[in-house]
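$ fold --in a.seq
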Amino acid sequence: MPDLQTPILDHIVILVSHESLLGISKQVDGQFTLAPGGNHADGLTTNKLILLPDGVYLEFIAFFDNIDPEKRRSHRWGNEQENTIIDWAFTLRSEEDFSAVQQRFKKADTEASYTDPIAGGRTKPDGTVLKWAICVPQQPHGKIVPGSLPFWCLDRTPRANRVPCEVEPQLTQHPNGVQGISSVSVHVPEGEASRFKGAYDAIFGGPWNYQVPSGSAAGTRSVSLSGGENSVRLVFRGLKQGKVELLPGLVFEIEGQ
């Protein structure tokens, strides 16, 4: 059985324009069931979600159009390309377990590390206040492109409030039969994969396999790293094999059971 520090895949972040977010229900109609999101505590962004049966979710996030352009540029996602996966997050059963991950980084052969937990949150449309802490990757010299390494989202209020898969199971049922995320592949610029390998070894502390919130053992639940243009790709797990187009040009494989 995985130990308490085995990463749990939490969510995938997809940046869209605010206009696209307002019309996202039409884009995913007939493919996915859309769940409401809310506005983030910083007042810069808002989101909508797709909850998957394995407990992982997809987050469509958008910056409000009327915010200060400089505030957007200074945000870690403010300069990323819209209509793409820009980041992804792990979580743990308890925020206290993150110290073991940080200890592994101190012993690892890598310049990368993670910040200490930074408080965050948002308010749901029904008024429920969600609180969490995030830990983002960093290095002494230069910026780590979002998505090259996952960030961590550690709940300070019950995860079931943030991701109501068990409370509202109907939101996890999708017309295309997608059941969860089978694998994640990360692409970094040619020649940098070896630099990131030590960081991934420290994240996992062993084989690069993650858990999912539901505890399901289906799919490979693996992460791979290779050279290429910066990007994050997914393989979904579903009732039958196929493909799904999340956004125009953003197409992913569905691995049949």
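$ fold --in b.seq
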Amino acid sequence: MVEEVRFDGPFEMTDVMKDQYERDGFLVVKNFFDQEEIDNLWKIFEGPAGILNHSYETIEPGGKKILRVMYKHPGNDVSGVISRSEKVVEACEKLLGGEIYHYHGKFILKNPHEAGEHVWHQDYGYWYKHNLFPDMITVWVSMDKATRENSCLQLLKGSHKCGRIDHSPGGATLQTTADLDRIEALKPLCPLVYAEMERGDVIFLHCNTLHKSSPNESDKRRWAFIACYNKASNDSFIPHHHANYVPIDKVPDSAIKECRNYTDFSGKEFTDPLKKAEDRKHFPSAEIKG
């Protein structure tokens, strides 16, 4: 069972929450973003100038599809303001123990019936080739209600304590898969939990926590907004398709509701691992997970 933190009013990451994150490898916070904040985020998908112009689609085994948007820097649209908001940045700095920077952001858009699975993996399984330490974190924001039926995240509780495990290419898919024999050995020790979430709920996810999501075979959409951060002291030692250290221009939480930029995505530097063949060399596994 997932232990959840609930709050009303201004959020502060407490020592108790940090202890839970360090014990379990993740922390679920209910209502981290209220409905007005999530409604404002949705507006960047509206109209012909929306962020979907920068999306790419992959075909997964079995013919299922996954739609994604990925970029380096937060920018000044609503998604960027969320990524630079005090409550997000300060929570991550508390969990990682120091200054952070925006490593990359993405939307994982699982549509009804057609969306494929994300295989078992650790985020650091993708990132370790360019970053020396697992001082990295993912903030996973539920834009829709996420359930077992429409592909909520599945996590192995406490699996971050086993360290990074080997990952291998996934064959027909561009994803990489964590060592499945090792995962099976871990399951009796690290309980499998389903992170069922409402709109605006957030998971703070340790980069070594094993997780996956099943195909979305339901009639319900499951879209998620994801912001990934690296500790400033862990700046990538090999330049690649994600960002090197740039100080975060932090904004007050009130800016999320006040932002009216829904179409100017300048500065985000969108990345598409399928767009150019010459780009593939910068994507060790195309980084199309989530």
